[in-house]
Write a structure and sequence with these properties.
By secondary structure, the chain is mainly α. 78% of the residues lie in helices and 0% in strands.
């Protein structure tokens, strides 16, 4: 083991834990949507109230491309570490604000206005997190371990989702319906504070990546990363966007919508569904490192193809088993379909940063991925709910998943090179199963 490897593992851990914080804070609102919607958007029509609440959830994602441009420039000009620190601080502050917001009954329209502002701040922050973490890990680990390294970032985001579900479920179980509506919904927002403090401590102790430090030492930094990116590598942005459509659609349907679907269409209790969703998300999170090892062994193209086919083939039959067959069958169908998410997420983790030059890498990843998140991620739950409301078909969200997977597959066909090949790469002198330094 080289002396650098423990430091690299700490750096990768700091990136992953920060992603836990970001996605916990970003997702708590989704799991509380059924409770929060009448508090901030009172209506005689429960569907209208829920759609309004989900629209606010989606509004955060409109800010992600703007945040991606800001944090992309920050990371490409002033360092990956600085971008990672600023993004997690902003997210923590916005989430604490949400914890203490007054409701519509107390201050009228000011309540949803403040809620939207806080969600926009969260979205702005999240715009820099995943691109920053993927870029940082890509540059800090060895060329044959980028699948495993990227899986830590994916593990972090899914762990954030799982923790959000667990905390909301625990709070719901320990409070009555009246208590949950009165003050219990605030607890999950506050509960993220210890994670935030841990993340700040870890990220303040890491070093920047060797690639960035070398570029900074030689003054080889882009003065205008956005302009340079769009003038020379706009095709790669579109490729990240296309793959990101598939990744976001499948990921956010699993992580945010299916729970709502099981309550509204399946008729299961909120508490039982939240625990089921938490269990499935924990299962998905546990698969992330396994998917990372598979990507390192077989390469991104092979594993990404399997993941896209899995999503397209099993979306409809899985959703058909989620209603009318009992919670156990619904949960198993949920878990079976969810296997596509680690395959897709981890396969793309090394591909996204590899598509770009280091001078504009963070900006490119953040812009392409966040545009896809706006289109198919934060809007997934809203689109699925809207489709069912319009068509009357509870299985209609499956067509959204199939279409997104098709877009991902067509995009994959446009990428001839720059696809991570894992074990096909030549072995370096000290390349080992440990996370090794970038060459």
């Amino acid at each position: 083991m080289t002396q650098a490897q423990p430091k690299q593992r700490r750096s990768v851990a700091a990136a992953g834990i920060g992603t836990v914080v970001e996605y916990y804070d970003l997702t708590v609102y989704a799991y509380l949507a059924v409770v929060v919607s009448p508090l901030f958007f009172p209506s005689d029509d429960p569907t209208a109230s829920l759609l309004a609440s989900l629209a606010v959830f989606a509004s955060a994602y409109l800010m992600r491309p703007i945040g991606g441009l800001f944090f992309g420039r920050l990371g490409d000009r002033y360092g990956r570490k600085r971008a990672l620190l600023v993004s997690v601080i902003l997210m923590g502050v916005a989430t604490l604000i949400m914890a203490f917001l007054p409701t519509y009954a107390a201050v009228g329209v000011l309540a949803p206005t403040l809620l939207v502002i806080a969600r926009l701040a969260q979205g702005f922050s999240a715009g820099g997190e995943l691109g920053g973490a993927l870029t940082y890990v890509y540059e800090i680990v060895g060329p044959r371990r980028r699948g495993l390294g990227g899986s830590i970032v994916a593990l972090g985001s899914n762990t954030g989702f799982a923790l959000a579900a667990i905390v909301v479920a625990t709070t719901s179980a320990l409070t009555s319906d009246v208590q949950m509506t009165s003050w219990g919904w605030r607890i999950p927002f506050i509960a993220g504070l210890p994670l935030l403090l841990l993340c700040l401590w870890l990220r303040s102790r890491i070093e920047d990546t060797p690639e960035f430090e070398e570029a900074a030492a030689s003054a080889d930094l882009a003065t205008s990363p956005v302009r340079e990116l769009l003038s020379s590598q706009s095709k790669q942005v579109l490729q990240v966007f296309g793959l990101g459509i598939a990744q976001n659609a499948t990921g956010y349907m699993v992580l945010t919508y299916v729970g709502i679907h099981l309550v509204r269409e399946g008729g299961f209790s909120q508490t039982a569904v939240t625990w089921t969703a938490a269990g499935v998300i924990v299962f998905v999170a546990c698969l992330m490192p396994i998917a990372g090892l598979l990507v390192d062994r077989f390469g991104s193209r092979t594993m990404l193809t399997i993941g896209l086919l899995w999503a397209a083939i099993f979306a409809y039959p899985a959703m058909s088993l989620m209603t009318g067959h009992g919670l156990a069958v619904a949960g198993l169908a949920f878990a079976f379909f969810a296997v596509c998410t680690p395959l897709i997420q981890v396969s793309t983790a090394p591909v996204f940063p590899e598509l770009f030059d280091s001078r504009v890498r963070l900006t490119g990843v953040a812009l392409g991925f966040n545009l896809a998140t706006v289109v198919a991620g934060g809007t997934a739950a809203y689109i699925a709910t809207w489709l069912i409301d319009r068509t009357g078909d509870p299985l209609s969200p499956a067509y959204f998943l199939i279409g997104a997977s098709l877009i991902g597959g067509l995009t994959l066909l446009t990428i001839r090179g720059s696809l991570y090949r894992g074990s096909d790469l030549p072995m370096a002198d000290d390349d080992s199963p440990e996370l090794a330094p970038v060459r």
